Design the sequence.
């Protein structure tokens, strides 16, 4: 079954091989940054396009532009009920931030949905470790010396470790959210340790549990004697000495590696949630009622008064 396509984590392994044989001047990027919420400028005086993209995701925001104000408000009302996770009738800043993050990661959920049916073999709406292992590695488990030279036993052990960390209730069965965390661990706070551990294992060639300067550069730069070292390599050497190696012991430990690959960037989703609450909270109680959100519906979603035509029947999920 694996022969049909290389499974996601096998693909990650294959990418490591590609990097190892890529052009020597190409730089390998290990750092995970949050994508911007919108390509639009955030200037409410000029319009709310940025806020629409942030709140709905750019693809969905564009579809709302085709709706009448009445239909746009109706669908926003449905969304408000989804955001209100504890169903107390109010949307808090925390709930709004979580919604924005989810809207921005819609492409990730769509990717998981496409793969789900391949792994949920018994169609019970869950994926067990046994199902994932058999689908991904089943044809290789009996072959101790595969022709392609990959160590599938080692890869499977790494996958199982990651699966267990994503499986928060410890039942060896993943629901949709747990499986998403398994496939995209960099997107989840509780998976950060496994991202760091796997990164260190990839780069730490001498197995001492640290990343030294040579390993750090060697992971990014495939050196060839006949080529002059590109300027960015020298810059990265300085970055390692001045910023990565914080305690100046000549190597990066787990904490230093986490600061490198998972930096504490400016939280755009949190900032946008604060902005939306500030602009909509008419009674200044620190949370939003459905009425307050609908009163400022044009801040959250777009619409047009005319020429919306058939758009009213689109996006039936709302």
Sequence:
């Amino acid at each position: 079954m694996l022969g049909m396509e290389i499974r996601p984590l096998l693909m990650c392994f294959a990418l490591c091989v590609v990097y190892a044989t890529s052009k020597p001047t190409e730089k390998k990027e290990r750092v995970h940054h949050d994508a911007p919420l919108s390509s639009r400028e955030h200037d409410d005086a000029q319009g709310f396009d940025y806020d629409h993209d942030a709140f709905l995701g750019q693809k969905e925001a564009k579809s709302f532009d085709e709706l009448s104000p009445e239909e746009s408000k109706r669908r926003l009302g449905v969304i408000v009920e989804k955001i209100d996770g504890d169903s107390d009738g109010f949307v808090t800043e925390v709930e709004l931030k979580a919604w924005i993050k989810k809207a921005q990661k819609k492409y990730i959920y769509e990717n998981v949905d496409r793969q789900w049916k391949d792994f949920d073999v018994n169609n019970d709406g869950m994926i067990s470790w046994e199902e994932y292992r058999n689908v991904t590695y089943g044809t290789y488990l009996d072959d101790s010396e595969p022709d392609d030279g990959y160590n599938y036993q080692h890869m499977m052990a790494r996958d199982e470790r990651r699966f267990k960390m994503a499986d928060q209730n410890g039942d060896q069965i993943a629901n949709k959210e747990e499986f998403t965390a398994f496939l995209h661990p960099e997107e989840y706070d509780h998976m950060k340790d496994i991202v760091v551990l796997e990164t260190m294992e990839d780069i730490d060639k001498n197995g001492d549990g640290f990343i030294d300067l040579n390993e750090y550069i060697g992971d990014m730069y495939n050196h060839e004697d006949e080529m002059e070292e590109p300027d960015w390599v020298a810059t990265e050497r300085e970055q390692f000495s001045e910023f990565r190696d914080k305690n100046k012991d000549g190597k990066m430990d787990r904490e230093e590696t986490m600061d490198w690959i998972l930096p504490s960037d400016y939280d755009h989703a949190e900032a946008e949630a604060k902005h939306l609450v500030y602009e909509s909270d008419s009674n200044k109680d620190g949370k939003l009622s459905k009425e307050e959100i609908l009163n400022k519906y044009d801040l959250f979603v777009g619409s047009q008064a005319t020429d919306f035509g058939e758009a009213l029947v689109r996006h039936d999920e709302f």
Notes: Residues 8 and 183 are 7 Å apart (CA to CA). The first strand starts at residue 90 and ends at 91. The radius of gyration is 24 Å. Strands lie at 90-91, 127-128, 173-174, 211-212, 251-252, 288-289.
